[in-house]
């Protein structure tokens, strides 16, 4: 273990350190966190702070906090930290020293060698500055590799077939896209393009402006000069962005944000994914233009690409995956955490240099896309069965995603929901694996919102639930063995085997066998739902005290139902039954 070479992703927003031990790649965490924010600062006592604490003080004490130093690497400049000036190399060295210490704490031994990643577009001067930063931190930089090279190595270090891979890397403040060729563990960057000032921070800014505008319109207040309120708005905006990567709506609530002319100002509003996607559309378009420039640079067209790899935290934004799928015709890979795969690739490169073996790092992903159908446009024509993917192929399991849908006509009291597995834009060409009906919707105009949540676990159990957004009315089903899908040949072989066994058996019996077994919600859940309805019907006749108790129990039951936690229902069901019995007797 003496010659261990650590892998470091020295990022603009976050940095990570990884190692290979016993063939396994590990990104080292400290205090439960694998990402170290690339922030350096001085605390109240004048001591150097790095990472989360420095990031937390940035908005309040910008004069003694430095962020995004990577942008200045290679420039002959100095940055100020309180009264002293430092070169970009020195600030980067502070981050590297911290990462080195994290690795040493974990390994229980000194570390002196590292592979550090740099963007493919980095000039010689920028690379040289990075090397110097390593030296100042007490690290021999045994190799510097390009970030897309590291990402490709994480995915394909063992692959022997030549592959052309598009690496789409959208972080907090930078965007890069590279076309790489990988063969027998050797990665070559064929072309690269990007924008050094485009990333998730821009998405945050869009949401922040939206919130500021809302406050201006609602309370006629301008919050920009209140740094504490701005810090809370910035945090709330980023959190809303995270939520919108999973859910179609994000509720933003910041109570007592500030006091204005003696009145407390609360921020409370809902942001929909649709509105958010409009805010960031121009940025996404710019990244796709860059994709085409990179393809052109490598003299390729979309169809030459074998794989797309997503790198950088911002690629969790669902519309990015969708747009790439539409443009290139391939489901992007995200088996490896998009924030961590560059550091992992650096560690893999380090292990290769040190002559260590490396196991494959890939984790379980869904091999199929799951979704539903809706009225939409297919080949320019209105079509009632357009496939709407919800859980995409190649995404890590377990996985849970929610999408919003709207009713089609006024007074629509019910919807039929069909769940499909497959990749065809025409849902009818995919495999139908379940269907159910939600009834009792509000009698309102078309556009009543329903959310549909799909949760797929490692055992292939797909939980599907549809909820009327306004009322919470919910219906759910469980689809077992959703990951199983007979290939045609396997199906034929199975048919023949069964026919041989039973001779007289009608092949059509097997042909019509559903691929997946569909089961309604557990009977306990149905019983609990009925009990809730019964309790609610009694609300008019009970004292406030009883009503409060009942509401508490209903809330507990509803959470258990949502989580499909059947055993958790026992106690609240018994209690609610007791109250109802006492009220009715
Ligand atoms: P990186 O530079 O790769 O660490 O990426 C950091 C950026 O990713 C920041 O702008 C984060 O806000 C953004 N990010 C992280 N997680 C998510 C997520 N779940 N959805 C959208 N953006 C995210």
Summarize the structure in words:
- The structure is a single chain.
- By secondary structure, this protein is of the alpha+beta class.
- The chain has four domains: 1-154 and 336-359 and 486-513, Nucleotidyltransferase, domain 5; 160-335, Actin, Chain A, domain 4, CATH 3.90.640; 366-484, Substrate Binding Domain Of DNAk, Chain A, domain 1, CATH 2.60.34; 517-585.
- It has 14 helices and 26 strands.
- β24 and β25 form a beta hairpin.
- Residues 486-491 and 502-520 have low confidence and may be disordered.
- Bound molecules: adenosine monophosphate (AMP).
- Adenosine monophosphate (AMP) is lined by residues 11, 13-14, 171-172, 199-201, 238, 241-242, 245, 312-314, 316-317, 339.
């Amino acid at each position: 273990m003496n010659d261990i070479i650590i892998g470091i992703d020295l990022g603009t927003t976050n940095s990570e350190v990884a190692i290979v031990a016993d063939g396994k790649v590990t990104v080292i965490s400290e205090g439960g966190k694998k990402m170290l924010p690339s922030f350096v600062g001085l605390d109240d006592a004048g001591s150097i702070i790095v990472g989360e604490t420095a990031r937390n003080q940035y908005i309040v004490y910008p004069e003694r906090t430095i962020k995004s130093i990577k942008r200045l690497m290679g420039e002959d400049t100095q940055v100020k930290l309180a009264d002293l000036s430092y070169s970009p190399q020195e600030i980067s060295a502070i981050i590297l020293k911290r990462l080195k210490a994290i690795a040493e704490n974990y390994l229980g031994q000194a570390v002196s060698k590292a592979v550090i990643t740099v963007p493919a577009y980095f000039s010689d001067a920028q690379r040289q500055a990075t090397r110097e930063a390593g030296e100042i931190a007490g690290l021999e930089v045994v190799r510097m590799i390009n970030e897309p090279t590291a990402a490709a190595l994480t995915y394909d270090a063992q692959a022997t077939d030549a592959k052309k891979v598009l690496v789409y890397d959208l972080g907090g403040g930078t965007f890069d896209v590279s076309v790489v060729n990988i063969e027998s563990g050797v990665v070559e960057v064929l072309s690269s393009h990007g924008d050094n000032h485009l990333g998730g921070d821009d998405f945050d800014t869009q949401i922040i402006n939206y919130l500021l505008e809302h406050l201006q319109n609602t309370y006629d207040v301008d919050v920009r000069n209140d740094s504490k309120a701005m810090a809370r708005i910035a945090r709330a905006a980023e959190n809303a962005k995270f939520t919108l990567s999973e859910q179609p709506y994000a509720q933003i609530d910041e109570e007592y944000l500030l006091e204005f002319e003696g009145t407390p100002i609360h921020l409370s509003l809902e942001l929909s994914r649709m509105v958010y996607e409009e805010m960031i559309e121009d940025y996404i378009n710019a990244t796709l233009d860059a994709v085409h420039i990179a393809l052109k640079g490598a003299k390729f067209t979309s169809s030459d690409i074998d794989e797309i790899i997503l790198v950088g935290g911002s690629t969790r934004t669902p519309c990015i995956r969708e747009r790439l799928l539409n443009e290139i015709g391939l489901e992007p890979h995200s088996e490896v955490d998009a924030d961590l795969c560059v550091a992992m690739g650096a560690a893999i490169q380090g292990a290769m240099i040190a002559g260590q073996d490396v196991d494959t790092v890939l984790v379980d992903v869904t091999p199929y896309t799951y979704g539903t159908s809706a009225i939409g446009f297919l080949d320019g024509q209105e079509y009632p069965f357009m496939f709407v993917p919800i859980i995409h192929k190649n995404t890590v399991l377990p996985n849970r995603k929610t999408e919003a849908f709207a009713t089609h006509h006024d007074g629509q009291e019910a919807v039929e929901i069909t769940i499909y597995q497959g990749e065809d834009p025409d849902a009818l060409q995919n495999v139908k694996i379940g269907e159910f009906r939600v009834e009792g919707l509000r009698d309102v105009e078309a556009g009543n919102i329903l959310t549909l949540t799909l949760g797929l676990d490692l055992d292939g159990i797909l939980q599907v639930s549809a909820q009327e957004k306004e009322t919470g009315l919910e219906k759910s089903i469980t689809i077992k063995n959703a990951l199983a899908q007979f290939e045609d040949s396997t199906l034929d072989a199975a048919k023949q085997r069964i026919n041989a066994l039973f001779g007289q058996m009608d092949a059509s019996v097997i042909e019509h066998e559903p691929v997946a077994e569909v089961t309604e919600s557990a009977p306990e859940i149905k019983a609990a739902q009925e009990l809730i309805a019964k309790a609610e019907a009694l609300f008019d006749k009970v004292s406030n005290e009883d009503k409060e108790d009942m509401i508490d129990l209903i809330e507990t039951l509803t959470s258990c139902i949502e989580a499909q936690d059947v055993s958790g229902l026992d106690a609240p069901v018994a209690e609610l039954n007791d109250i109802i019995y006492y009220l009715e007797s």
